[in-house]
Each structure stands twice: as C-alpha cells, then as structure tokens.
Amino acid sequence: MFNKHLKGYIGLLVSGLLTACATPSTHFYLLESQSAHPVSSTTMTKTPLIGIGPLSLPAVVDRKQIVTRSEHNSIQVAEFHQWAAPLKDNVLTVLSKNVTARQPNAMVKSYPWGTYGEMDYRVIIDISRFDSQLGKSANLEASWAIMEEKNHTIVSHGQTTLEQKLNDASYETVVQTLSKLLNEFSQQLSLALQQVAKNN
User: Fold this and answer.
1) For residue 94, what pLDDT band results from cuts at 50, 70 and 90?
2) Which residue, 30, 33, 29, is CA-closest to 180?
3) Can you spell out the DSSP letters for the chain?
4) Which has the higher per-residue pLDDT, 20 or 105?
5) β-strands 65-70, 74-83: how paired?
6) What are phi and psi of 160, to 5 degrees?
7) What's the Cα-to-Cα distance from 104 to each of 42, 61, 68, 174, 199, rounded to whole Å?
8) Cα gap 15→29, rounded to integer Å
9) What residue spans define the domains of the chain?
10) Is 29-199 a domain of CATH 3.30.310.50?
C-alpha cells in the first residue's frame, strides 16, 4: 500500500515538473528613446516650460500584453510578450525624452507635471493607432495640438500618420520599430514647437 501511494506521489511530482518545464516564460519589453540632433536654437528671453500630455491611447492596445493585428480585422494578444511598464506611461516618457533631446533650450516634462507648476506650452496627444502586424509593418497615427497655457489657446495642431516595414516577425523587432516611430513623431512635434517659439 505504501509503495502504491509513493509511486502515485512520484508520478504527480514528475508530471508537475514536466508541466512547469513546458510552460513558456514571459518576456517583458520597454519602448526606448532615440538619440537625436537638437533642432536649430532660437534666441529666447527665458527657458520655456513644455509639458508633453495628456496623452490617450486606443483601449485595445493599452494593456500589459502586446497587441498585434492579423488578417480579417482580428487581433492577437500576446500573453507571453508583455510591456514592462504601463504602455501610456512608457510612451509619454519616450516622447518627453525625445523632445528634450531636440529642445536643449527648453525644460520638458511629461504629464502630470505637478510640482513644476504651470507650463508655457502643453502638447496634447491623441494616438488613434499604435500597433503592428508581425512580419509586415508597424503603424502610428495621432492627432496633436500645442496649447499656450497662459491663454488656453491652441497655437498649433496637426495629424501624424507613420508606417515602417518590419524586417522579421519577432516581438523584439516590433518594439524597436515602434520606438523608431515615436522618434519620428517626436521630430514632428519638436519642429512644431520650434515654429511656435519663433512666432512668439
């Protein structure tokens, strides 16, 4: 009887170990800022304070799992490929770092900026698409507006549509390419901010 129970226990233990070994591990990813050359500087009487945000993302991608598109208007949610931080926070941080690199004469903070007080300008961003199709392309679509905080006046606005081909079907390539798209978007925002500074 004892041997029978012992064999059963050993069988369950081996089965559990095999199941654990068969379960894939979860991979975590972060979007990264890109190195950039600053835009040409202008003569300013003071250091402008620029706030990046608030920012909105489509609910379908604003989750811990990486979401990709597939054919026939369907999506794939990667349970074992996840963002290491809340996606919205990560996007805001990357955009802020990228804009900072291009605006050396400004102080750039991501939303909410709280203790820094009122900004001179805030960049309001509505991202309507931020995803990819594995092995094919990554896409970023957004509308944005630059608001002068003192007068609550929109001084510039625009639409952005970006697409970049993917070299392979890996999630590492997806994340790297999405980071590159944010870099391109940051360039557009920086040029718009530079133009606003010239006009004021």
Assistant:
1) very high
2) 33
3) -HHHHHHHHHHHHHHHHHHHHHSPPPEEE-------PPPPP---SS--EEEEEEEE--TTT-SSEEEEEETTTEEEEEEEEEESS-HHHHHHHHHHHHHHHH-TTSEEEESP-GGG---SEEEEEEEEEEEEETTTEEEEEEEEEEEETTTTEEEEEEEEEEEEE-SSS-HHHHHHHHHHHHHHHHHHHHHHHHHHHHH-
4) 105
5) antiparallel
6) -130, 130
7) 10, 32, 35, 30, 18
8) 31
9) 29-199
10) no
| Residue 151 identity (one-letter amino acid) | N
Q: What is the rounded CA–CA span in Å between residue 68 and residue 171?
A: 10
Residue 167 structure tokens? 């070299």
Q: What is the rounded CA–CA span in Å between residue 53 and residue 44?
A: 23
* pLDDT tens string 104-120: 889 999 998 877 778 99
Query: d(Cα 137, Cα 112) in Å, to the nearest integer?
Result: 32
Does the pLDDT at position 5 exceed 60? no
pLDDT at site 36? 63
